[in-house]
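tokens incoming
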């Protein structure tokens, strides 16, 4: 109870001014309050072989640097939990540095063990007087309470040091991981870029063969070349996605950003969506406002996001179904929505849909990077993206929504009209 009360009393003070300042204030106040020459706090070393000076008041640097205080029989008596009052320092054999103490003008001292929360001794508080002094029991009991307060502060300091050490180690590890990650992304970008040209060339050669330019192909040959082209298409898609991921992660997309409006880009995305959906008997519904305010954006990347979401929606919507594209200004943001009335996303897959390489349906072709790229692009623009499946209002299908903050000109001039994306 006593220790918990001391902790609660001292906690706001420690948090307000810091451990070091509280310890200095404690020894100074103790010395002045008892009319002593000085006061010090020493902490027991980890190996419990010596006392290490932490903080003092009223003592010279020369005395503090007199040498190590070894844990001998006399110090062990103090560390056993019993306060020790040495009345005559010059003649008491328990004093390790009597000559230095006499030179410092110390006539007597009181050593009080400092206890930790569990009751273990973690150090000693010493009070030094310039005249011989024998402390009364009531005085010692009060000073034991002060020493217990010192124990609270010491444990707080130790916990803080451990926390700082852990934080420093964590920061160092994070910095290393960031460096390794950046190196890997640069390597990934280089490899993907170098692979794109030869894979694309091989695909071009195969397509030339399919056109019959080098000569006629048998049905079997044509079948296997078609399959090869399909595989190469998938590989090129993966390579493109890997290049996009590395560019987004290393901030190479920022130069593409400019003040612009969404009007032209949204119209183009609706046309692209119709081109994907019409052959499959899927209706594209457009509910897009006109005259959007400016945003700071990369039109190319935002089109990539919308086209990716539409492509996914078409892929999972059966013939006769519909895909809706909406865009409107809400508050300080533009909200873009792509929703379908298709099969939806399973409850198990929903928490992972924005993870790299995650595919909820392993039978469906794709790299598993599309939605993670969408998330990166939206967040690069300062927005948020989320999904709902099934759609609450209909109980079926999937709805993807993302926000884009409006551009606010903080400069001296008016907002420029921008470029239509």
């Amino acid at each position: 109870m006593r220790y918990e009360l001391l902790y609660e009393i001292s906690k706001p003070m420690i948090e307000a001014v810091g451990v070091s300042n509280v310890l200095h204030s404690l020894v100074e106040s103790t010395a002045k309050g008892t009319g002593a020459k000085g006061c010090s706090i020493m902490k027991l070393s980890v190996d419990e072989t010596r006392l290490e000076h932490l903080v003092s008041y009223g003592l010279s640097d020369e005395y503090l640097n007199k040498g190590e205080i070894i844990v001998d029989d006399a110090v062990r008596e103090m560390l056993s939990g019993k306060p020790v009052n040495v009345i005559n320092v010059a003649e008491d054999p328990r004093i390790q540095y009597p000559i230095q103490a006499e030179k410092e003008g110390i006539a007597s001292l009181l050593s009080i063990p400092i206890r930790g929360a569990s009751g273990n001794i973690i150090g000693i508080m010493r009070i030094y007087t310039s005249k011989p002094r024998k402390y009364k029991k009531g005085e010692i009991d009060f000073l034991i309470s002060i020493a217990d307060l010192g124990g609270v502060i010491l444990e707080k300091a130790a916990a803080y040091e451990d926390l700082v050490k852990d934080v420093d180690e964590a920061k160092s590890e994070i910095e290393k991981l960031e460096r390794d990650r950046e190196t890997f992304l640069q390597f990934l970008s280089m490899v993907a870029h170098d692979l794109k040209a030869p894979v694309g060339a091989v695909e071009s050669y195969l397509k030339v063969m399919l056109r019959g330019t080098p000569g006629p192909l048998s049905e079997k040959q044509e079948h296997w070349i078609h399959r090869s082209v399909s595989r190469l298409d998938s590989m090129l898609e993966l390579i493109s996605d890997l290049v996009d991921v590395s560019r987004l992660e290393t901030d190479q997309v920022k130069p593409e950003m400019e003040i612009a409006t969404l009007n032209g880009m949204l119209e183009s995305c609706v046309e692209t969506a119709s081109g994907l959906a019409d052959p499959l008997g899927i209706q594209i519904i457009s509910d897009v406002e006109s005259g959007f305010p400016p945003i700071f954006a990369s039109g190319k990347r935002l089109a990539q996001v919308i086209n990716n979401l539409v492509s996914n929606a078409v892929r999972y919507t059966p013939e006769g179904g519909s895909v809706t594209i909406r865009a409107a200004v809400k508050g300080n943001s533009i909200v873009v929505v792509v929703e379908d009335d298709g099969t939806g996303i399973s409850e198990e897959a929903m928490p992972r849909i924005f993870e790299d390489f995650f595919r909820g349906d392993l039978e469906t072709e794709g790299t598993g990077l599309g939605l993670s790229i969408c998330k990166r692009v939206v967040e690069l623009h300062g927005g948020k993206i989320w999904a709902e499946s099934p759609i609450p209002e209909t109980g079926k299908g999937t709805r993807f929504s993302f926000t884009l903050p409006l551009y606010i000109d903080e400069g001296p001039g008016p907002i420029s009209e921008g470029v239509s994306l």
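note: The chain has ten helices and 14 strands.
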